[in-house]
Amino acid sequence: MGDHHQFGSGETEEAVLHRLRLLERVYDPVTTRHLETLGVARGWNCLEVGAGAGSIATWLSAKAGPEGKIVATDINTRFLHQIVNPNIEIRQHDILADPLEENQYDLVHCRTLLMWLRDPGKALRKMADAVRPGGWLMLDEIDYGSILSVESSNPSAAAFSDTWRMGIEFLRKNRIVDPYFGRRVRNLIDQLGFIEGKNEGWTRICRGGEPMAQFDLAAVQMAAQPMINAGLIGPEKLEMMQGLLMDMTFDYPGLTMFSAWGRKPGER
Ligand SMILES: C[S@@+](CC[C@H](N)C(=O)[O-])C[C@H]1O[C@@H](n2cnc3c(N)ncnc32)[C@H](O)[C@@H]1O
Q1: Rounded to whole angstroms, how far apart are CA atoms 78 and 52?
Q2: Does residue 254 belong to any structural domain of this protein?
Q3: pLDDT digits (tens, 9 = 90+) for 145-157
Q4: Most buried of the four, 79, 98, 165, 258, by CB within 10 Å?
Q5: What is the mean predicted confidence (pLDDT) over 234-258?
Q6: How many domains in the chain?
Q7: Residue 8's pLDDT band (boundaries 50, 70, 90)?
Q8: 57, 40 in Cβ contact below 8 A?
Q9: Which helix (H) or strand (E) holds 138?
């Protein structure tokens, strides 16, 4: 993902889309609930950065109506071209390298983007610059901390947590993703000097086989091959994880999606 590493580059297009659709299915209700509280309304001009398969851009488009406009960017727009809403502009765009309008948007939003970038600060500054005075910036980023705290009386708890911990460390050390990025979002908004900041984290107790567990399974499958290549896990451990994530008797706390938002000082 991104222009910085080849991680996941062996995945089929189908596998990537499957993962994005699960992400949307589980987390769209959380993201849209927060967007509702910001008051997204008709006529808004919104920027969705790293739009993925486009569900949030589509939701924003319905809210903004024909008087509004949504720019949906991604470094790879392959899953966005099926969107034909007249008020959505699909833009192939690297947030780290390509120019962006300044002081333009009523809302700039991204989800699970910054955690993948080598220079999240640079992306964030550009996103903040794109917000018009009085407009909103909202970040949704994942934090894997909570997934490590499985209820200890569960006989599979130790093996599950140890394997996640190993996977998370592998991703972090190899700078593939920052698995603990979510906990930073509040400070990032504050440090920009944005006002009226609020934040919230969302998780739940997942059960094997549920969409949230299927999303985790897709993440495990994405990380598995590089970890096998590095000699960190064998096929048995991968099978154990896959089994638990599909086991309808296995409960575990899910990852946390942290959201934070704030308003750029200036006119409303
Ligand atoms: C984990 S996906 C999340 C997709 C979407 N935001 C969502 O939550 O449904 C991250 C997205 O960011 C895009 N991306 C990665 N690096 C990017 C960059 N430098 N500029 C713009 N988009 C990027 C990826 O192509 C991918 O679609």
Answers
A1: 9
A2: yes
A3: 999 988 888 889 9
A4: 258
A5: 95
A6: 1
A7: low
A8: no
A9: strand 131-143
- Pick from 180, 145, 181, 151: which is nearest to 164 by CA? 145
Residue nearest to atom 12 of ligand 1 (CA): 50
pTM for the predicted model, two decimal places: 0.95
Whether 188 is covered by a domain: the verdict is yes
Question: Are 81 and 105 in contact, with CB atoms under 8 Å apart?
Answer: no
For a pocket test of ligand 1, which of 75, 175, 222 has the largest count of ligand atoms closer than 8 A to its C-beta?
A: 75
**CATH number of domain containing 66:** 3.40.50.150
Distance from residue 234's CA to the centre of ligand 1 (Å): 30
Count of residues in the chain: 268
Residue 6 lies in a domain: no
Question: Which tens digit of pLDDT belongs to each residue from 95-117?
Answer: 999 999 999 999 999 999 999 99
Structural domain range at position 217: 13-263
- Name residues whose C-beta falls within 8 Å of residue 59's C-beta, 6 or more positions apart in sequence: 28, 32, 35
Taking a C-beta distance cutoff of 8 angstroms, is the pair 226, 10 a contact? no
CA 95 to ligand 1: nearest atom: 20
